[in-house]
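Bumping with the actual sequence this time:
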Amino acid sequence: MKKTDRLYALMQRLKDGALHTAEALAEDLGVSVRTIYRDMDTLAASGVPIEGERGRGYTARAAFTLPPLNLSELELEALHLGLAAVGQGGMPDLAQAAESLSARIDALLPEDGETQGAFGFATYPFRDAAEGFRFMPDFRAAIRARQKLRVTLKDRTEPQELRPLHMDYWGRIWTCIAWNETARGFETLRIDQVSAVTPLPGLFVDEPGKSLADYRAQAR
């Protein structure tokens, strides 16, 4: 398993709100406990809101706001994209400036424990996440309009027909909860794994077993 895929798998396990020990995660993913500790440090450095510590267990939350900056959604996406690109652009002075900018943003976050560390700096495993940002407008528009999408994913040979329902942010990784018409089930897709998007004609309406409420009920 590639490191980026393992980190994403860890985020998927942590976001259920339960406390997961490093030993259990290591056994589940087939790696050493020391590797899990390093992965947790990497996730935290990349802005994933990790809670917990070695010897006790870990969990994560997917929520943050930046009230002091009053940023629009597009402005925040631009910051994510810029930091991800500049931080890995091979220009030390600009990379340092990107890290400094990230630190300034962190300093402006409210000190109520709800958003601390949620921005962070784009470290190596997530540099490719910026590739998916160009599809964000398609997913957002489809969720608002309740429009189906035909989506091509990097790890699948056949396009998937989706009902996009909701998007989450996990420290440089955006995911979309969708009802997959092709697979006939709910799925959480990584936006950075999308290679093509085509809006389909017509709108969808909620059907029993296919709504966001149904997904959340199953998750509970």
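The tokens above came from a reply further down the thread. The two ends are 28 Å apart (CA to CA).
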